Amino acid sequence: MRHFIVGLIAALSLAASPAMAAGDPFAPASFEGVKHPSWSREAVIYQINTRQFTAAGTLRAAQGELPRLKALGVDILWLMPIQPIGVKNRKGTLGSPYSIRDYRAVNPELGTMADLKGFVAAAHAQGMHVVLDWVANHTSWDNALVAQHPDWYEHDWQGKMHPTPWWDWSDIVDLNYEKAGLRRYMEESMLMFVRQAGIDGFRCDVAGYVPPDFWAKLRRDASAIKPVWMLAEWGQRDLHMNAFDASYGWDWAKPLMAIGQGKGDVSGLFGYFSENESAWPTGAQRTVFTSNHDENSWSGTEFERYGPALPNATVLQFTGEGIPLIYNGQEAANDRRLKFFEKDPIVWKEAPQAAEYRRLIAFRDAHPALWNAPWGARMVPVVNSAPGKLFSFVRAKGGDAVMVVQNYSSAAVTATMSAVPYPGAWREEGGAVMALDKGASLTVAAWSSRVFTRRFQSVE
Predict the structure, then answer these.
(1) I need a surface site. Which of 26, 123, 247, 271 has the fewest CB within 10 A?
(2) Per-position b or e across 243-260, b if 16+ CB within 10 A of its CB
(3) Whole-structure pTM value
(4) What is the DSSP-derived secondary structure letter of residue 60?
(5) Which domains does the chain have, with CATH numbers?
(6) End-to-end CA distance of the chain
């Protein structure tokens, strides 16, 4: 049984402010315990499913694509797990990359440790950083630890090892973080890749299934080696206290998909952004995406899930609050659900999505108001006369302002703005300068966005 409460208390104590340490019981705990590496300020994440990324499906072949990714404008490359995959209880022909047989080796189907080092070095030479997907919650059934350290695993009422409860994860077996030896082994394995391969951080699989005090110690020790960046596959704000820079913003996608499927309207977005501002630390980098390996393989392509709302969702991904994530193949308009346990390479082709991503990333880089937390600005809602159809907001910081007005309906909408923060002359992207103030009227075409920028004398 995992001691989540004990772990959380430990994490809270690590995050305690000096005032609390001095004995003030009412002093607030700090939610800014993680120091983000400076290179994450404008970063966009790109997820690489190495098996499907190229026809060869190797790290060496993926390295050949780095100049293209640099030209796309992405900054953080997330490599899905690169370790050998378990054979016992394997699913499909090749198995799941999340069924780890040896934490300290590289899957020979992908290459060698030298190939991994070469990939990381080449990415660094291009000014990009590499994070490794890490599966700390479970191993494959034939991982050597099963025989060597059976006490490091969880056991059911019959005394048998078991997969993660309630899920159909029959190819894996759960670890038990009450064991100090497991904690030391897991941390040493992770730090090995930082030291030896130059890895810049980790995307941590089902991070909430592992006690937060383990992640806190890992982050502290990894940061003593080099500035690292960590993404939690989890939606819990407290993991940001002293372990994770970023976490999954699953609830960002839900209202957008509902709109695209005709099951909701713009008001569904208000709940996410209200909670994001009111309940999450200002330094939390919430990861926003229209696809990833799970969504694509198990729920459908972004075209299936978002429908006509996809273009607006993509604009919002790069102009609203959050750190954007692109899944490999989206820039090629991949319209297939990639097989998860088999070789199923992306069919690369020229598509307008690539140019759109390049444009949005360059626009985001050029506007400090749009940068990642805590550098970028909060979204300020712009009240309009069509609140169920138009989603409108301003982000402004340091004299740089961006206003976005999006129509999430199937017909053009003309609406009046009740109030516009930083009123005055705004320039529309690709268009003319226009005065936007209280009472201004705007027409937005169906399923489209209008984006405006303004420079002003900052009073911050």
Answers:
(1) 26
(2) bbbbbbbbbbbebbbbbb
(3) 0.94
(4) H
(5) 34-370 (3.20.20.80), 379-455 (2.60.40.1180)
(6) 50
